[in-house]
Amino acid sequence: MSAHLMDDEIATALSQGEGQFREFKSAWDRSAGSPRKLNWKTLRDKIADAVAAFANADGGLLFVGVEDDGRPSGHGYSDKHVEGLLAVPDSRLRPGVRCRTARVEIDGKEVLVFHVPQSTEAVMVEADGFPYRVGAGIQLEPQELINQRKQALRVVGYEQRFKMEAGLGDLDLELATRFLESTPVGSRPVEEALQFYGLIEQHLREWKITNAALLLFARRPALKWHPRAGVRVFRVAGRERLHGRQRNVTQVGRADPPLAMALPEAKGLAGSQVGRSEQLNGLFFESVPEYPEFAWQEALINAIAHRDYEVTSRETEIWFYDDRVEISNPGNLIAPVTLDRLREGGPAHGTRNPMLVRVLAEAGAMRDEGEGVARIFREIADRQLPAPRIDVENGLFAITLFGEGARSA
Length: 409
Known about the structure:
There is one protein chain. By secondary structure, this protein is α+β, with helices and mostly antiparallel strands. It contains 13 helices and 20 strands. The strands form seven sheets. A six-stranded mixed β-sheet has the order 14-13-17-18-20-19. Helix 6 crosses helix 7 (190-196) and helix 10 packs antiparallel against helix 13.
């Protein structure tokens, strides 16, 4: 099983565009009309920034010799200079990053590929700070914030731990095959694709199964592996929950794991509770959802992808009221994400489940641009609805979207 992407798999990765786990770097300067190869030191420094940013976040793939639109354009450097570029992760970063590198030819153009692992401590570009990957961009973060997150990662997280009593037969391999079909390794045998993402690992003749693999692809009934890994959807008749004889809460339904099935099921359950109204647009009326579709769906997928699965006593929940919808999940924020940054609507990235997030992103189930919450705020503002509310309290993260009914509250 190759740990490297094959040529056709690289083409698929390039077609997915830049994001949290993919970066394209051109080797050409096009500012003066006719393209000229970039100064070697300039490209070297760009590679150093990109590799350090991936290592400080969740790892990823850097393609050098590729334009922003994913078109391979190659480079014009000698073998000696190419070897120098491939050595950048070790020579220009402190501590050095042990990347897997490759020189591949795509459409007659040579592309340099860096498979960047997630580091265990903050990585600095020599005399240039600590870059951090956020969606398709890079920002500088304080060393102590990055190391705060790295310290937590030194204790193997829930998703990465192996469930020793589980075997390959406990996974729905047909479901995994379908779900991974659109990923760069979707054409491989399913066991190889799962191994590529670190979801399973072969030891002698046996397969070791991670919690992430069970969360995503366990055969149903899957609650024996995690009793609260699903999503519950509720409807409240009114603006506040009432109890006893006045109880006004109805459970609409629940979407149980595996997540590859629970995601579309949860979207269906939640979508059935989103009201619609007729609004005049120019000369015609159009049906408008109570909440922008992107906003509530992004909030839902984020809740599932970023929740703390160490917590087995609470589920991800969606509560629909007459004037709002609340989406909550177990888990505090992960550094360097802060509550203030989220409330400001700026780009932010931090996750305790990088394996889950990468699989979901590359399978097209979620966006990996690092601007999901920011776009939620923009979509809500465009509809002139009240700004979303974000709260973190008692180990629970919650985002509240307000509808038209909130205006008269």
